[in-house]
Amino acid sequence: MPPKIRDLIAELKRAGFVDRGGKGSHRNFVHPKVVEPITISGGLGEDAPHYQIRAVRLAIEEAKK
Questions:
Q1: Is-above-0.90 flag for pTM?
Q2: Which of 23, 28, 40, 63 has its CA 20 to 30 A from that of 54?
Q3: Full 3-state SS string of the chain
C-alpha cells in the first residue's frame, strides 16, 4: 500500500524542508541544500503516486549531502 500524501509531507518537514505554499492542492517545498523545489500535489488522504514518492526520497538524500 503506497504512503499517503500527508506521510510524504511529514517526511519532507522532518528533513528540514519548508512549505512555500502553492495553488489548489499543490504544495511547494524548498530546502537550502536542494536546487529544485519539490512539488507535492493531491489531497492529504490520497495515495501518493510512485513518481512523487521517488522525488521525495531523492530530495531528502540530496538534502543530507
A1: yes
A2: 23
A3: CCCEHHHHHHHHHHCCCEECCCCCCEEEEECCCCCCCEEEECCCCCECCHHHHHHHHHHHHHHHC
